[in-house]
Predict the 3D structure of the following.
Amino acid sequence: MLRDEITTAIRRALMQELAAVGYGRLSIEAVARRAGVSKTAVYRRWSSKLDLVVEIVAAAAHGKLPVLDTGTLRGDLALLFQAVAHALRHPLASQIIPDLLAEAARNPAIDETLRQVLRARQQEIGGRLVIRAVQRGELPAATDPDAAVDLIVGPLYWRLAIARLPLTDSYLDNLVESVAAGLGADAAVRRRPDASVAT
């Protein structure tokens, strides 16, 4: 029987080692040493470093999002951006994510795992945020959820993984307004039959 505390220690050590040396230099021996366990303990759970990384990254990426139902599109966007920024500000995440994105270009298994994770996230956000905004009349009925989610999450990953700039509160506030406008929220509200017209 596999002990949960050993599995947890290995997972924690993997994240720390991955952040420290990257996937290319990662070894089972180093993960075991950092976790304070034998290599056998690691191999009983995962057959290779690829299996270890793929499972743990997928599990971390599937962490639960907050309930995105504040009653307004801008409120939902603000909550989502704060949750994502909190996760991405973690030092381990800021080091691991760029490395894995680069590794995905060379490793089909990691590439496919990241694609699956991102597709699942896209469907989850699309269902919780975009579709509700359409139902409330805040977004046009023809809004494409996939394209909308690209616009919503794309700037965060660009800023973190490519530009390597901080996700400040002021940036996130401005991003809420920019994304809402880009999705056509203001135009949709003006077209609503019950929208009041100032006289």
Notes: The longest helix spans residues 108-135. The radius of gyration is 20 Å. The mean pLDDT is 83.
